[in-house]
Amino acid sequence: WNSRLYSSSTMDSSNKLLPSFLYSSSKFGVTPQLVAPPAMPLVASPAEPVAPVPSMAKAIASAASPMVAGQPFGKIELNSPKYYAASLFGGVLACGLTHLAVTPLDVVKCNMQTDPVKYPSIPSAFGTIAREGGASALLKGWLPTLIGYSAQGACKFGFYEFFKKYYSDLVGEENAKKYKDFIYLGGSASAEFFADIALCPFEAVKVRVQTQPGFAEGWSDGFPKLVAQDGYAGLFRGLVPLWARQIPYTMMKFGCFERTVEAIYTYGMPKPKSECSKQEQLGVSFLAGYIAGVFCAVVSHPADNLVSKMNQRAGVPASEIIAEMGLYNLFTRGLPLRIVMIGTLTGLQWGIYDAFKVFVGLPTTGATPAPEKK
After folding, report:
1. I need a labelling partner for 253 at 20 to 30 A (CA). Which of 10, 31, 182, 326 fits?
2. Residue 139: which of 149, 130, 152 has the closest Cα?
């Protein structure tokens, strides 16, 4: 009895010196029996043989098994809080990095929209900006771009996954399948409503920095200067035009993407999605994203011109800007460059987002076509 008591107390005290994951259950799935078996007497009698203790190598291998299986954060259930958190982070990577990468194109586009006389074409705009401000002028506004579109991407993708499930549950499984296009459009519109609130202050500073020479060098001096001139309300004066640009854009981005993915697997692939490799599925995501991006650019371009002008010319009402530009210029000025930029952006965003989902052990985005009835 004394021997057993000594053994048990010794084991309990030794456990306190070890990290808890080595002797208690954890997210990695290491069971108490795996590393710290029940206490046994130091001297075993023939009737009570000592069980062998599993090696530390086996414990580590067991703990790391989710990573080997492509689940670095453990198993993620669909539509769980962990799933939505992964969607938020995937959106940060997808939107923040891609918008940062095309900052030079964005600088040229914004200047062509706000001063078409000085910047009549894409090549001349690149040359004029680089000549007057140096090569670094093509990167103006990169920090508000990175922060703003990272925040927007988190809300856009994360909230889309949430609202898509929410509206599907609201109407029921049968109606969700029957009216899935409305689920896609409603979910994406709801997500973008909140995403633009997160983006708007950064977009306001970015456009001023990029289009007003001498206004500021970047976010650190541009933000306080804009607030000093227009107040905090000035950060959100472009919110309504931003909604007008981004909500139709995002509805097209997600609705067209979902339908294009389904069409590619139905008519363009020789095998169903479930039999495609991860690389093939990611290729489908990029292609469908690029196609959706072209439509996004066309649908949202008038509002994009309006947002650029309103942020450049503080205090001028939208009706006056539209009258000055004319409807034709409102719909077409800077459109070819924006089609290239948004098509590439959207394709890369869906590719990055789905690549991150695959990395954490989730399926790629896109409805699997229903099997044909025989």
Report:
1. 326
2. 130
